[in-house]
Amino acid sequence: MQNIKILAIESSCDETAAAVVVDGREVLSNVISSQIDIHTLYGGVVPEIASRKHIENINPVIEKALSDANLTLDDIDAIGVTYGPGLVGALLVGVAEAKAISFAKDIPLIGVHHIEGHICANYIDNKELEPPFICLVVSGGHTHLVVVKDYGEYEILGKTRDDAAGEAFDKVARAIGLGYPGGPKIDKVSVEGNPEAYTFPRAKITDSVYDFSFSGLKSAVLNQINGAQMKGEEINVADIAASFQKAVVDSLVTRAMTALEETGFKKFAIAGGVASNTAVRKAFTEECAKKNIEFYCPSKILCTDNAAMIGAAAYYEYEKGVRSDYHLNAIPNLKLGER
Ligand code: KG4
Ligand code: ZN
Question: Which residue among 36, 67, 90, 283 is buried most deeply as judged by most CB within 10 Å?
């Protein structure tokens, strides 16, 4: 135990978050200020509003993270911050704040990749988990099947060719009148629906067994709704939601299980907002049990955007001696594994 205390900051989309994490795995505080209510008025995240809200929220959120941890900035050993991918204006708020604290307190600054943070959320809730393993990252902006070779070392096996899984949830939810944010609403309403009521397509990518595609599925749902409306038929929202969710789950499970079989890995984790989905968690728990694969997932609060996961990722970079300088900038399209 080294007792390295990292103050982590996350502001890549619509959550302003700060956390204090010890040695990458022990969370002393995890504060998340969500902007959902304001963006709901517009049916989705408005980047300019997100940046402004981050500016308002960031100092109180950091103060609360420190006071919840019973610490002051003088106790902090390093600052970790998300610098990409995400909304540029939103990212910049966290990056500028982190640089200011690092400079004022003369402590190391570590820029963290947001998706790496999602993967590392698994280390917090599964203390025994160590690389190598396969991780499926399913968020609002990404759908990646990744080999986690070591801490901070990734090989991307497959990714989405069009929409991310979370994006598909959000678009379908909007189309069936559930509104924003779509994922949790589809998750909830699906419980009352029949997942076999409609047969929606499971896209196959012929030149890569590990790549995903969700735009055809989204169009099929829209066509079903439009067709019903033209015939004056009522649509059953719960049945559509459950059938759509089943199609997403099937696509995710098929790719991941093929990857596990072909690579021979016996450990599998999920991460990102869609990993909090009840049907996704259930399907992988069952499939992995059948195939004797150890299955890991973070608690639901650590699946969606938070700063504790950034603190976990920052710790493993810190351990390797990675440090960012004051030229650290927001990189909206930062690739996983790039620095
Ligand atoms: O990881 P995240 O919080 O932010 C990004 O990095 O994008 O993921 C947000 C995405 C949204 O698309 C949201 O609808 C989806 O995750 N999501 C869910 C659930 N909770 C959040 N999708 C399905 N079921 C859920 N319970
Ligand atoms: Zn995220």
Answer: 90
Position 1 confidence tier, pLDDT thresholds 50, 70, 90: low
Spatial separation of the C-alpha atoms in residues 309 and 328, rounded to whole Å: 20
Q: Mean pLDDT across the stretch 167-183?
A: 93
| Pocket of ligand 1 contains residue 305 by CB under 6 Å | yes
- Residue 36, Cα to own-chain centre: how many angstroms? 16
Q: Where are the alpha helices (DSSP H) in 126-232?
A: 165-175, 182-190, 215-230
β 267-271/294-296 pair status? parallel
- Residue 224 CA to ligand 2 centre (angstroms): 30
- DSSP H/E element including 116: helix 114-125
CA neighbours closer than 13 Å in the CB half-sphere of residue 321 = 0
Binding site membership of 163 for ligand 1 (Cβ less than 6 Å): no
- Rounded to an integer, what distance in angstroms lies between the CA atom of residue 112 and that of residue 253? 28
Q: How confident is the model at residue 42 (pLDDT cuts 50, 70, 90)?
A: confident
